[in-house]
Amino acid sequence: MSSEHTHNHSHSHNHAPAEFNQAFAIGIALNTAFVIIEGFYGWKINSLALLADAGHNLSDVAGLILAWGGALAGQRRPDARYTYGFKRASILAAFVNAVVLLLAMGSLGWEALGRLQHPAATQGATIIAVAGVGIVINTATALMFMRGSQGDLNIRGAYLHMAADALVSLGVVLGGALYLWQGWAWIDPVMSLVIAVVIVLGTWNLMRQSLHLLFDGVPDSVDLVAVRRLLLDLPDVADVHDLHVWAMGTSDIALTAHLVLTQQVTDTNALLHEAEHALHDHFEIRHATLQLESPSYALQCAQRTGASCQ
Fold this sequence. Notes:
By secondary structure, the chain is α+β, with helices and mostly antiparallel strands. 64% of the residues lie in helices and 12% in strands.
């Protein structure tokens, strides 16, 4: 029986969440202050749109705190009990964020439908002024997270929340303007419903992706067929089996695979080096564990298990 060779490799890299501590702190502080202001004026002038937006912003403050906590937990170093550290905390934070936001929007929609039956007068000018401040705050916060939104689902969740808030505040401004122009009392709950629908549509994909990763699904950025093809195209690789790809966190992808080699392999170190760099360059897979097998060993595994060596 030929010997097994297992090789672990991790490229050194900067973890995205560590670069966003200041953005989280500033975003939480700005949005907390704005929630207080918007909630006060929404209550004072009886505007459901302002109260709805304040409630949504409050959930986003909680969401930012949750995302920050997930990011910080993900930076915890591995130990003997948690060999991956707490990287998955960032995925869990993204999922909880999405669920809480969807529940909040369901409550908002229900309240708006009730208010539509009994529209109440409000103050358009105050709505425009307060929501205008919200556009500035939410846009500034979103811009702080935009750079990391492509490579980290947790950061993307924070970015999407803030970008959606800026659009929501713009919608509230438009609603206030229409109220001043036409005096439509029903425009306030209608804008609240529109806000809820827009946010649900924007949040649904975040929930789907985070739930997918929680169950060790292959990240959307990785084409498993292309990964298999890349490994098979390596020199001296005859077959690939037990290929698994999953997300350890929202910015860390791991892979394990068994590579069945031809009989003529002379330099396994060169093969491993080429495989690791190809996986990193093409798929951003930073943690690869590759087991090298001879054809005879792979055949014995298949005979023992009835399928392939696990």
